[in-house]
Amino acid sequence: MFRRPLLVFQLFLRSSRVQKKRAVLTIAAIAWGSLSLLLLLSFGEGLKRQLLVADSGLGRNIAIMWPGETTRPWNGMPSGRPIRPRVEDIALIAARVPDLHAVSGEIRSWRTAYTYGTKTVNSRLTGASLTYGDIRNHIPRAGGRFLNHLDEQMRRRVIFLGQELAGDLFGDQDPVGRELLVDNTPYTVVGVMIDKLQNSTYGGPDAGHGVIPISTFKAQYGRDLLSTIVVKATRPELMPAVLQSVRETMSVKYGFDPEDERVLGTWNTVEGADVMAKIMMGIQLFLGIIGGLTLVVGGIGVANIMYAVVKERTTEIGVKMALGARPSWVTGPLILEGLTYTLLGGALGLIMAIGLMMVLEMIPTEGNEALQMLGKPTLSLPIAVANALVLGTIGLLAGYFPARRAAMVDPAETLRYE
Amino acid sequence: MSEAALRPLADCRTAETVIRMEGIGKVYDTGKIKVEALKGVDLSIGSGELVAIIGPSGSGKSTLMNLIGCLDTPSSGLYELCGQSVAGMKKDQLAAIRNRRVGFVFQSFNLLSQISAFENVEMPMLFGGWSRRRRKARVEDLLERVGLADRMEHKPTELSGGQMQRVAIARAMAMDPDILLADEPTGNLDSSSGQDIMSLFEELWQQGRTIVVITHDPALAKRADRQVEIRDGLVV
Predict the structure, then answer these.
(1) Residue A301, min C-alpha distance to chain B (Å)
(2) What are the CA-CA distances from residue A144 to residues A138, A189, A191, A413 (Å)?
């Protein structure tokens, strides 16, 4: 086989025709298996990507810290002291902590009356730093903007609205540029958030709150104590060091043990993302195994037809051997034949999978939350490559074992009787 | 063994003895029972001989033919083909010997039914690595010599028994082998076709070919140079 590949190919082309029906069924089985594998993996991939998108709703690779109480005595001070970072500490953290992508302070009001015209809605209000828009993924719709430096500097009464809150207040009207009352103080709407998937929150989804400059919040409500600190490292893996540095900076200012983790309760979403990635990997693997097994069934079909071929052609194989064919010249064409069925089926499966994807693409997911969470099945290159590798392996194995039996054919035995 | 080692075929033609067997034994071990098909056969066939091997069925004739044709290897004893011992050869080497030195003619023709007469005759040359042009010339020449120039593209199923056997003989002669081995070549033919085939063999023999025919047709055996009778795995 290896010394005369051309001869093997010639012999393959000249080998007797198999029963067409059987070949078609076998190819169909492989196509089906291949289609199952591709679809399952594609759905997994779509789900993964969609979860990633939904995960990004909160903001990618951020950590949220909540002020709490000390649990250890420190420098002669007892435990149980509440520690409350202030708005000014945000600048301190930004200046002191290395490897920090951005930090944002948040002051929250849980029940704020929003009034537009005759309509009043009670919802959450957040005073936030300018970096909030970036790290918490508050992206404005076209025509609007997030808060800017002048807003903060001049303590402007401007507000960025979550899309649901905006819809509740303004209906079909474009809220940007309009005035509304926030706890009876007039504010101008500068932007509305785009629709975004958000699968995790602290305190409620972003779609339902309004965001004003933290300086404005402080001025209007007279509150200076931060509800949370939101932190993002330059690289996700640097997050633990960044969080430690934030704690140390605060501990110096407020006097607490930097190892006291309860002072600043922390939710590091990077860890969650790691776990999520592992879960997704597990799901992908599970789907892959199911699809792979379906494909193996198809492979057994190919092996089956090849065994039948070997049995049917026993005399032919014996004759060829008597005429001087080396064993590899008998096995080579058989392996090629098995591989051909497998690859034909695989190609067919791939075409069907691509076709199905295109049909699924056309189904609208708007307004259907289940479909929205499932995402679009995505046939990525790694999936196609994995499928091709599995197919190739199955094809080779399905051809190899029957071919090995053919090589063991005793020519003397087959030629003795007809 | 390199293929080149088989090349000097002329040596074999001039050699006195083409086939030399000493104390050849063949045991078939089917697991439970051991069948001793040959029990020490001594046989020597010279170059250019036409030898008939006769004997009742089950006597070991076919086993002997398989051993001569290197389709099988002996369990014991010495076998030299053209002065070269066959013992310990690998499957690929045996395949090369079958391709170059031996031409087989079977009782049931054993043509490949789905390809044409031309392609059947061409098959050994494919294994021999001949070029397309050389194959074509040789196949046409051979089929012409057996009188089937007008049947080249016919499939075996479209030919009569006698024609099929002539295709088989053309195929056996494809690589210009040293020995032509025929196992009951006329067994499946009517008498007139059988006569034709026998005449073809005699013609080849007169051209200096070594021919070994296995038969239990006494009329056929009489036309041979020499008759070797096998009975119960021994030469009588």
Answers:
(1) 25
(2) 12, 9, 4, 87
- Nearest Cβ partner for A324 among B99, B112, B115: B99
Which domain, by its residues, includes A47? 5-56+274-416
Using 70 as the pLDDT threshold, list the residues of chain A that sit under it.
1-3, 16-18, 365-369, 372-373, 416-418
- From B215's Cα to the closest Cα of chain A, the distance in A is 14
**Is B123 in Cβ contact with A320 (below 8 Å)?**
yes
- My answer on whether A91 and A237 are in the same domain is yes
Q: Which regions in chain B score pLDDT beneath 70?
A: 1-15
Q: Pick the last residue of a domain from A269, A298, A315.
A: A269
Beta bridge partners of B38: B26
Question: What is d(CA B125, CA B141) in angstroms, rounded to the nearest whole number?
Answer: 13
pTM of the complete model? 0.72
Query: CB-based contact (8 Å) between A416 and chain B?
Result: yes
Q: How many whole angstroms separate alpha carbon A343 and alpha carbon A392?
A: 7
Please give the backbone phi and psi of residue B220, each rounded to the nearest 5 degrees, phi first.
-70, -45
pLDDT of B1 = 39
Q: Of B1, B64, B127, which to mutate for an interface test with A (greatest number of A Cβ within 10 Å)?
A: B127
Which residues from A are below 8 Å from B113, CB to CB?
16
What confidence tens digit (pLDDT) does each residue in A194-210 have? 988 888 889 899 999 99
Q: Are residues A252 and A206 in the same domain?
A: yes
Query: Among B210, B208, B207, B186, which residue's Cα sits nearest to residue B43?
Result: B210
Cα–Cα distance between A188 and A175 in angstroms, integer?
A: 9
Q: Which two tokens stand for residue A3?
A: 């010394």
| Angle value at C-alpha B197, between B194 and B198, nearest 5 degrees | 85
Query: Domain check: are A149 and A170 in the same one?
Result: yes
Could you tell me if A203 and A328 lie in one domain?
Answer: no
What residues of A are in contact with residue B92 (Cβ under 8 Å)? 326-328
Alpha-carbon distance of A387 to A339, in angstroms, equals: 14
**Domain identity same for A264 and A278:** no
Alpha-carbon distance of A26 to A395, in angstroms, equals 12
Same domain, A400 and A310: yes
Give the chain B residue nearest A414 (alpha carbons).
B110
Please identify, among A230, A252, A269, the residue that sits at the C-terminal boundary of a domain.
Answer: A269
Q: What is the pLDDT of residue A102?
A: 95
Do B185 and B154 form a contact (C-beta atoms < 8 A)? no
Two tokens at B164? 């099929």
Tokens of A246: 């934030």
**A368-401, pLDDT tens digit by residue?**
667 766 777 888 888 888 888 988 999 899 889 9
Same domain for A160 and A233, yes or no, is: yes
Q: How many distinct structural domains can be found in chain A?
A: 2
CB atoms A322 and B110 under 8 Å? yes
Same domain, A237 and A325: no
pLDDT value of position A365: 67
